[in-house]
Design goal:
single chain, 371 residues, Rossmann fold, Isopropylmalate Dehydrogenase, 12 strands, 43% helix, disordered C terminus, Isocitrate/isopropylmalate family dehydrogenase, metal-binding, oxidoreductase
Length: 371
Amino acid sequence: MSRPEHVVGLAVGRGTGAEVAAVFERVLERFAQLYATEIAVVRSPRIYHSYVSLKHEGGIDEVRALTRQDADHYERFVRARAAAGGRVIFRTAINAQTLYLVRQRLQAVKVDTLDAGGARMLLVRDQAQGFYTGENEHTPGYVRRVTEFSREITEKVLHHALGRARRQWPDEGPARIVMAYKFHLLDGALDAWAEAFAQRHGVDVQVVQPDTVNRNLIAHGPADRTVLVAGNEWADIMHVVLLDRFGAGRQEEHCTRNVHLHADVHGLVEYQTVHGSADDLAGRDLVNPVATVRAAAAVAERHAGCDGAVAAAERALAHLGEAGIRTPDLGGRHSTTAVVDALLDALEGPGPAVPATRTAAEAVAEPVTGS
């Protein structure tokens, strides 16, 4: 049996995870057919908890134990995909504490490109350190959360942001790096690390309080070619605002990607929808599939050789919008399945459809060397 041409990892959480994963696989399979290529999907064998499903399992001790089990398992899955040569995973929403344990261990950042009327901005969220990471210590009536920042991780995040910006704007490079962190709480350490990095790499790095960043964005908008490196305490809250203000669309229709900086999994990209697990919609066939469609198109184009897949998906989505085919959250009356059916009919590729995908079982049955 020949090995698949391209391999994509898939991790599924509870809530609407199964429905989102089904949309992802259907769209990816359609691209494989349109581009006459072979894309195998390798699923993690575990279904990971959402926060809602964890709460149904019992009290604090049960939540802590299951969170740790999910984090350990997902970390092993990511490491296994990287060791097998995999370069991309699509993951549905899972419990945040689980994710941040893994992101801390594997030193993750989340990257988004934004455009404010021609002022280009790169948002790099530091997911590897800070309050969102760390461990909880429980005593009766108290939770003590221990977190840390390090010079090593800060420089890794800055180095990735600088490299990504130079690839994004190869002729000009970044004009500046703005670090949005509550740095006053760190006794000057972050300032010193940023200054040393700036001097070593010859780039303007400014460490700015989050409220000042907010004020400047509201009053003036971003300056062109700004790299905004942000602590997750601020970036998580502001992400939806930045998406809305700077033209990237509704949160429910947006996908984003996480990049792991740890040497063991360096370069492995994890795509996700921005919306959460939406447990209240589970099993109702009503989850908005647009973000998942965009994630599948991005994976197909960037990791499976389907040049033009992103543009093709956007044309198909525009066609659906003109035809009024949308889920109820967008004012429509169509189910998830109906929207995806219509989208698959509207998708166009470079040539005739040729069945070419493999099942996950077939892909798992043989060793994988690349993606």
